[in-house]
Amino acid sequence: MGLTEDDYMDAIRVQDACNLSGILHSWLRTIARMREDGLGTDGTNHHVVSRMYASKVAYLTGAADTSRLMADWDECERMSRELLDGMREKVEDGKEGRG
Fold first, then answer.
1. Using CB atoms within 10 A as the burial measure, which of 33, 56, 76, 91 is most buried?
2. Are both 7 and 37 inside the same structural domain?
3. What is the pLDDT of residue 99?
4. Average pLDDT for 21-35
5. Burial letters for 66-86: b for 16+ Cβ neighbours within 10 Å, e otherwise?
């Protein structure tokens, strides 16, 4: 079926939305239709509709402020290590209980 006029209008309508999950689900459906139109990764990434959705997602998440990117990156790495360490501790505790 490919992109329709509704896809372009949804990209405009989403600018008034506040539900991140709903926005992302809509965007994914639209990306599937872009693929049906034969757009590859580059075409999808740079399509006007993708830019509209990306702009809204960036606004809602605060990612439009790129000065936060490195701090956010560091926080994700820290949280990942913490969770991994917690999983390791559970595994080690389980091994000690069987000894």
1. 56
2. yes
3. 57
4. 98
5. eeeeeeeeeeeeeeeeeeeee
Residue 50 and residue 12: Cα distance in Å, rounded? 11
Indicate whether 7 and 27 sit together in one domain: yes
- Grade residue 68 by pLDDT with cuts at 50, 70 and 90: confident
Boundaries of domain holding 7: 1-64
16 and 45 inside one domain: yes
Euclidean distance between CA atoms 40 and 34, whole angstroms: 8
Q: How far is CA 4 from CA 22, 36, 52, 89, in A?
A: 19, 11, 16, 52
Q: For residue 26, give both structure tokens.
A: 């809509």
Q: Please indicate, yes or no, whether residues 56 and 15 belong to a single structural domain of this protein.
A: yes
